[in-house]
Amino acid sequence: MKTLIAAYSGVLRGTGSSILSALQDLFSITWLNRSKVEKQLQVISVLQWVLSFLVLGVACSAILMYTFCTDCWLIAVLYFTWLVFDWNTPKKGGRRSQWVRNWAVWRYFRDYFPIQLVKTHNLLTTRNYILGYHPHGIMGLGAFCNFSTEATEVSKKFPGIRPYLATLAGNFRMPVLREYLMSGGICPVNRDTIDYLLSKNGSGNAIIIVVGGAAESLSSMPGKNAVTLRNRKGFVKLALRHGADLVPTYSFGENEVYKQVIFEEGSWGRWVQKKFQKYIGFAPCIFHGRGLFSSDTWGLVPYSKPITTVVGEPITIPKLEHPTQQDIDLYHTMYMEALVKLFDKHKTKFGLPETEVLEVN
Predict the structure, then answer these.
(1) What is the pLDDT of residues 262-293, one digit of tens each?
(2) Residue 2 lies in a domain
(3) Which of 35, 64, 208, 349 is deepest in the core (most CB within 10 A)?
(4) How far apart are CA 68 and CA 260, in angstroms?
C-alpha cells in the first residue's frame, strides 16, 4: 500500500523518476512474495511425501477398519473385495500412471533440495538391468524422485527404459498407500516380483534396489559416505539367473538431508532396531529435519541439501541358470570395484574432497 501511495504521489508531482522508483519497488516486492510462495510449495510437496511414507498406510488401514463399523460399511466391503482380487498386481510390476509420475508437485519436490539425475552411459532397450542404489539414507529421497517420478526426466535420459523402484513388500499390504506407490512404478523388493519383471515383462526393465536396506539406514548421517554391501550378494545372484546387467548408482548428498541419533553397537537402542529389522523388515530411526515454517526448528521436513544421483556404467552379466558361489563372488567383486570407481570419479564434482574415501561395509 505504501508503495502504491508513493507511486501516486510521484504522478501528482509530475516526476517520472519517482514513478519509476515506485514501480521498481512494487515489482521487487511481488517477486519476493512469489519466491516465498515457491519455497513454501516446495516444502509442502516434500512434507506430503514424507507423511505419506510414514503414516498414510497405517492411517488408511485404521480408517478402513472404522468404516466397517459405520453406515458406510459397503464402501469398505467394496474396497476390501477389490483388494483381494488385486492382491498380486504389485508382484507383476504394479500399475504405473504417467499422469501421476508427471504431477507438478514432483517438480517442486525436486527443486526443494534440489535433486538431479546424472547419466554417464546409455542403457540399451534390448537388455534388462538391476541398478544398485547407494546409500539408503533415511528415506531414499533421491531414489524416489529420480526413478518414481518424471521430475528429473528419467524417461528422456534413458528412452525406452522402464524404471521400477523396489521397496518393502509390507507397504503393498496397506490400503490406498499401495495404489499410491504403484502409480509411481514402485514394486515389492522380493524374488517373485524381480523374477517376473526380468523374465516375463520383456526387455528394457530397470529394477532399482537400495542394496543396503534398513541396516544401511541405521548408519546414515551427514558427512558420512558408507555403504552396506560386502555381504549383500542376493541381487548379484538374481542378475546372473536372468542375465540382467548390473549398474552401480551412487547418490551424493542422500545422507545429508536428515540427522539421526546413532546408537552404538551393543546398546539397547541398537538391539531394538535390529529386532525390528529382523522380524518386520525395517529399522525404526530417531531422526529429524527442519520445521515446516523455519529451518531453525526441528521437524520432519528434510534439510534442503543437494542430492545428485549418478548412474554408472553397466556391467555385462551372463545368464547362468544355476550360478555357483564362485560366479556370484566374482561379479559381486566387480560390482564393488565399479561402485568405488564411480564414487572416486565424481566425488570432487559434488563438494567432496579428493581425500574422501567410500567406506564399504
Answers:
(1) 888 878 888 888 888 777 777 788 888 998 88
(2) no
(3) 208
(4) 39
